[in-house]
Automatic annotation (TrEMBL):
This is Integral membrane protein terC. The chain crosses the membrane at residues 6-30, 42-64, 84-102, 151-170, 182-202, 208-226. InterPro entries: Integral_membrane_TerC. Its main location: membrane. The lineage of its organism: Bacteria, Pseudomonadati, Pseudomonadota, Gammaproteobacteria, Vibrionales. Belongs to the TerC family. Keywords: Membrane, Transmembrane, Transmembrane helix. It comes from the Bacteria. It is a multi-pass membrane protein.
Length: 244
């Protein structure tokens, strides 16, 4: 019995951590626009509120299951509440990511001090909303795998602690390297598009998206390493020239 619970907990924790990658990328992009002294506080608060919202979904599992039943029919295609949530959330993520990408390319989107409080509120609401969209399938899967709500809640809380521990490093890295930020934004655009397709009935395997992300990260990491080596060579060359 203990081993069954341990395996179930480990599986759920892995699912939640993978889900957390999507969330952290989105959170990092949003929080970066705030003043530096607010970033960590808002980021951790957003993660905490999202955890409470996700736990609320777990306790509302009977309601969640009703959302998988056909709700609306358009041109002989039936859409459930889940489909509408995925479509709406995916469309929001897609448009938001494209807007952030355009703003970044134009070097705009800076937050002014007079808008900080309103921006914080909007950022927190966006974090919670997107987290719920991301969590929809994982919560239903978790309840199907494990009938012990305590185990599901424990996996959610521990994954949130892992997210808090990783968040600062991920945000600093994305901010420091423009190529990584571009990759993160493109990942969110593709993820939003995938959710939209799922909302209209096309089931897509997200593993392909993670393979693309891993490949992009490998290329960008190689580029960063080569760039650092070139900078070291230039520094040594300039030192030698000054010495001569």
């Amino acid at each position: 019995m203990f081993m069954d619970y341990a395996v179930a907990f480990s599986t759920l924790l892995l699912l939640e951590v993978i889900l957390g990658v999507d969330n952290l990328i989105f959170i990092s992009i949003l929080v970066e626009k705030l003043p530096r002294h607010l970033q960590a506080r808002v980021r951790n608060l957003g993660i905490g509120l999202a955890v409470f919202a996700r736990i609320g979904l777990v306790f509302s599992v009977s309601w969640l299951m009703t959302l998988t039943k056909p709700l609306v029919t358009v041109f002989e295609l039936s859409f459930s509440g889940k489909d509408l949530i995925l479509f709406g959330g995916g469309l929001f993520l897609l448009l938001k990511s494209v807007n952030e990408l355009i703003a970044w390319l134009k070097e705009k989107g800076q937050v002014h001090s007079g808008m900080v409080s309103a921006s914080v509120t909007m950022i927190l609401l966006q974090i919670i909303a997107i987290d719920l969209v991301f969590s929809f399938d994982s919560v239903i899967t978790a309840v199907a795998l494990v009938h012990k709500i305590e185990i599901i809640v424990a996996a959610i809380v521990i994954s949130a602690l892992i997210m808090v521990a990783m968040a600062e490093k991920i945000q600093v890295t994305i901010t420091a390297y423009p190529g990584l930020k571009l990759l993160a934004l493109l990942f969110l655009v593709m993820l939003g598009g995938m959710l939209v397709f799922e909302g209209v009935g096309f089931k897509l395997d997200k593993s392909y998206l993670y393979v693309v992300l891993a490949f992009g990260l490998a290329l960008e990491t190689l580029h960063i390493v080569l760039d650092r080596q070139q900078q070291k060579v230039k520094a040594k060359t300039s030192t030698v020239l000054r010495g001569s």
